[in-house]
Design goal:
By secondary structure, the chain is α/β, with parallel strands linked by helices. Helices cover 53% and strands 9% of the residues. Helix 10 packs antiparallel against helix 13. The longest helix has 22 residues. It is elongated, with a radius of gyration of 21 Å. It comes from Lactobacillus nasalidis.
Amino acid sequence: MLDLNKIGSAEAGQLQQAQDRGQLSHAYLLLAGDEAEALNTAYWLICYANCEGENKPDGTCPACQRILSGNHPDVMLIDTEENRQTIAIDQVRTLKQELAKSPAEGDRRYFVINHAQKLTLPAANALLNLLEEPVAPVVTFLIASNGGQILPTIRSRTQIINFSQQPASSRESLLLENGMTQAEVDQIKDSSQVDQAVKYFYQELQEHDPLAIVSAHQLAALVKKQKQGTKAWEKYVWILLKKWAEKELTAGNVQQAAAFLADLLQIDQMRQSNVGFLNNLDYLALKWQQ
């Protein structure tokens, strides 16, 4: 059963960013050990793009409900059928027939192929023809647990998203997995004060507390006071904020957490443009006062 609360948060943020920029690829290969998580993430994006509610995707508006129940005219799911262990060519041919149809409600249609590693060779070749010549505004999601079982020619025509593994058990592994170097990790010593300050700042943001702007300046000052590795500590703060948002996702607060993760993606771009640490914290504080 589809569950928009059980998604890959980072991967959903990546897809949301592409959607917001009008840069969705025509085909994605979502590789995950937990295929259900990848499938939920694909449907999260489809609901986000079509949601009629204020906080997208709310999962409760008529469009979202029809998408999740399999009754939306612009969304089609292909999966292994009962008593069959593979996806046959006749199922893929159905997609080719659907390509002749224009979107009924939105600006594009969505094809989702679950367990794509179970495509028979004829079915995979038929799918390849569709991916080579997308003649309609369609986004295709291939969900698979093993990329090695997908034809290389199909992989080369998709944008591949590898889902993260389970969260690391140690702080060091967590930081390394989130882009810090070993030298930077070694600079993060006693983090108790920063950990607490980040927690309070995040809670104030979620409560739209005007005092978050004060906490932003206090947090920036606390990071600046660290004896070494200011840049490493700044990275550490962004990782902690991301982890707090991911906890919110796990708790079921999907819309608010997804919006916050999207803001962190925006801040990543601002950091690459050399926007300062305090200015980025201020950006969050001011935006979440609204």
